[in-house]
Design goal:
Helices cover 0% and strands 53% of the residues. With 121 residues, the chain is an all-beta fold.
């Protein structure tokens, strides 16, 4: 079993920044990614970014490139999402994901409980 615990969400003004963290524990996999998704009210869950745990290779959605940066610390088993220049449309629940397939954007695997990010205009 895998446990993912997110933190770092909150309320921020437009143009501000937040850093989300997700700590993973439990079973390990030979190759996996960790990543971030979000879901706004009335919308489908959306892939944002993922990092391959073994070598740090990243991929991200075009919608957040240049504003959101994913990184990971292997020492503490944590993935981060640095979000800059936040916009009201970034308001959503943000979910951490561990994808044992290694694809990162498959919408498969394990999920955290979600953390709310609200951006005021």
């Amino acid at each position: 079993q895998v446990q993912l615990v997110e933190s770092g969400g909150g309320l921020v003004q437009a143009g501000g920044s937040l850093r989300l963290s997700c700590a993973a524990s439990g079973r390990t996999f030979s190759t996996h990614t960790m990543g971030w998704f979000r879901q706004a009210p009335g919308k489908a869950r959306e892939f944002l970014a993922a990092v391959t745990w073994s070598d740090g290779t990243t991929k991200s959605a075009d919608s957040v490139k240049g504003r959101f940066t994913i990184s990971r610390s292997k020492d503490i088993g944590t993935v981060f999402l640095q979000m800059n220049n936040l916009k009201p449309e970034d308001t959503a629940v943000y979910y951490c994901n561990l994808d044992p397939t290694g694809l990162g954007d498959s919408y498969f695997g394990y999920w955290g409980q979600g953390t709310q990010v609200t951006v005021s205009s």
